[in-house]
UniProtKB/TrEMBL annotation:
This is Germination protease. Autoproteolytically processed. The inactive tetrameric zymogen termed p46 autoprocesses to a smaller form termed p41, which is active only during spore germination. Its EC number is 3.4.24.78. SUPFAM superfamilies: HybD-like. It comes from the Bacteria. Keywords: Hydrolase, Protease, Zymogen. GO terms for biological process: proteolysis; spore germination. Initiates the rapid degradation of small, acid-soluble proteins during spore germination.
Length: 335
């Protein structure tokens, strides 16, 4: 397979799974050297384990070497409480695997960082998760002899965004980490996707840290082990998609509709029928960018979706971080 440069495309998606899919499509559908993935399905929940093993794989899909787990649940849009509880349980199980892999023991101290702007709904995921996680560090500091077994020291902060504080989120977190000395940092942020179907229905866990603003093409100093000196696990949910992606998807739907009903759509679409998805998307971006119309778009139901997905993540974190939390009913431990 010819090695591909995904740099021109990775601004459109933060999901490693989507980057892999795009690379496979551009490369003719064959396996990508340096990338190992496994997918399983459990009653409406699709889980993909993706391991970027080396620099070749990293360059091929434009993602950092590391492990990524993607949990896709299209039916989350139906706001089914039972399904949400099952997703939280699955999330907790896979997140525990990440903790075990990096050697985070039962007595390790955890700092949860909710990135994003609480004043902008699609970007409020991190702060909403922080509101609902179970924080316990103050009990360990003030009354350690009264803390029941099965809990660990967890602290949480929502540092805001550069436009509000005038300070990079990474600088705020670095200062807090130097003072409180956590053993691991969990960073939560809203992401960008290339697929409308994955917006608000997908959770990505990664052991490579996080870069605030990367989903909207605004790459700044990140929260990574190289910068902070301790492991950083990233949790993200795509809440926005580019207008160019929507236009491209609409063109594809129109082509499929015309082909299904007329059999031949060459007269209408001409050369577009010969273009691949990436090439057609690049053409749409070139048309929209000069006039400033490549907007970031979020569904109109974002207010309900963001609350639901934040509760799912908070519930899963509570169950995976505290043994005393019943993993079979994780939703009972958010507030």
């Amino acid at each position: 397979m010819t090695e591909l440069d995904m740099q021109q495309y990775n601004v459109r998606t933060d999901l490693a799974l989507e980057a892999k899919e795009m690379a496979e499509q551009l490369g003719g559908g064959g396996p990508i050297p340096g990338i190992h993935s496994e997918t399983s399905e459990d009653n409406g929940i699709t889980i993909t384990h993706l391991h970027v093993q080396d620099e070749q794989g990293s360059r091929a899909i434009g993602k950092v070497i590391g492990r990524y787990v993607t949990i896709e649940v299209p039916a989350l849009r139906n706001q089914d409480t039972e399904l949400q509880n099952r997703v939280a349980t699955q999330f907790a199980k896979h997140f525990e695997t990440f903790l075990e892999r990096i050697g985070v023991g039962q007595t390790a101290k955890v700092l949860i960082v909710g990135l994003g702007n609480w004043n902008v709904t699609p970007d409020a995921l991190g702060p909403l998760v922080v509101e609902n996680v179970m924080v316990t560090r103050h009990f360990f500091e003030l009354m350690p002899d009264q803390v029941a077994p099965g809990y660990r020291a967890v602290s949480a902060v929502a540092p805001g965004v550069l436009g509000i504080t005038g300070i990079e989120s990474s600088e705020i977190v670095q200062g807090i980490a130097e003072k409180t000395k956590p053993d691991v940092i969990i960073a939560i942020d809203a992401l960008a996707s290339k697929s409308l179907d994955r917006v608000n229905t997908t959770i990505q866990i990664a052991d490579i840290g996080i870069h605030p603003g990367s989903g909207i093409g605004n790459k700044r100093k990140g929260l990574t082990q190289e910068i902070l000196g301790i492991p950083v696990i990233a949790i993200g949910v795509p809440t926005v998609v580019y207008a160019s992606t929507i236009v491209n998807h609409t063109i594809e739907l129109m082509r499929s509709h015309m082909e299904a009903n007329n059999g031949n759509n060459d007269q209408i679409f001409g050369l577009m029928n010969q273009m691949g998805e990436a090439e057609r998307l690049q053409l749409v971006k070139e048309a929209l960018n000069p006039v400033g119309h490549d907007l970031l778009v979020t569904p109109k139901e974002i207010d309900e979706f963001i609350e639901d997905i934040a509760n799912i993540i908070a519930s899963g974190l509570n169950a995976s971080l505290h043994d005393a939390v019943n993993s079979d009913n994780v939703a009972a431990y958010t507030h």
